[in-house]
Amino acid sequence: MPLVSGEVPYFRFDLFSGLNLVHAVFTRRGGVSPVPWDSLNVGSTVGDDRARVRQNRERAFRAVGRDPASLYDVWQVHGARVAIATAPRRLDEPHIQADAVLTDNPSVTLFMRFADCVPILLCDPRRGVVGLVHAGWRGTVQCVAAAAVEAMRQRFGSQPADILAGIGPSIGPDHYFVGDEVESQARQVFGARANALFSRRDDGLIFDLWAANRLVLAHAGVETVEVAGVCTACQLQDWYSHRAERGKTGRFGALIGLG
Questions:
Q1: What does the pLDDT look like over 230-243, one tens digit per residue?
Q2: What domains, with CATH codes, occur in the chain?
Q3: DSSP tag of 170
Q4: CA atoms within a 13 Å half-sphere pointing along the CA-CB vector of 194
Q5: What are 181-188's contacts with CB under 8 Å, separation 24+?
Q6: Which stretches of the chain are assigned E, i.e. beta strand?
Q7: Where does the pLDDT of residue 3 fall: very low under 50, low under 70, confident under 90, or very high at 90 and above?
Q8: Who contacts 230 (Cβ-Cβ below 8 Å, separation ≥6)?
Q9: If you average pLDDT over residues 136-158, what whole number do you get?
């Protein structure tokens, strides 16, 4: 997952190279927000000034050559609902509540916000469809990534084996401590496979969101997956981490759109 340097640096997945699409997972660097949101905060519900958030979002879009007016985003609620974006979202248009969004319209740029939860970027190059998924632990055990794959199949005729998936920077398996409730729900979903997703240390129980979402995708029939392997809680100079910064932080952005 190489870094593209510049005034607004961002990461890209190798598996999308050469495809007719634009994608990026932005770091926290290159924006205008002060501490504790420094600096490319694109989250408008964390206390930052909305004008700065809007400017940061515009900086991110222009860094990859996308028109900010092409944006389609959703109100992320830690669920498994999938939205279909047929056109950009107007500024006066209410957000749909969803944690996955898909489009086959090149004039739409899908956009989401993160600070430990897992960004999952999807592309079916055969059908010309892209998707973006937000998976915290709740979305993971609800298999939101699989719901997105199934929606790609039903709405656009995608074959899961044709879909490419990138699992982006998020809290890593060394830092994501959870309670027994999470383990119980995960075991209901993953069965015996959950044994590999949890490790118990002296300081608590750890859940591997990367491995869990890879399992979800594999069970849905997705064969090609790239995992960034970048922990947001480990590298606060580059990423926002809700856990590591105890809630006083911003949100980094991820986007994808057809070229």
A1: 999 999 999 999 99
A2: 3-173+222-258 (3.60.140.10)
A3: B
A4: 18
A5: 182/137, 182/141, 182/207, 183/207, 185/141, 186/137, 186/140, 186/141, 186/212, 188/141
A6: 3-4, 10-11, 21-26, 71-72, 82-84, 100-103, 109-114, 118-124, 129-135, 164-167, 177-178, 198-201, 204-207, 224-227, 252-258
A7: confident
A8: 1, 11, 168, 169, 170, 172, 239
A9: 98
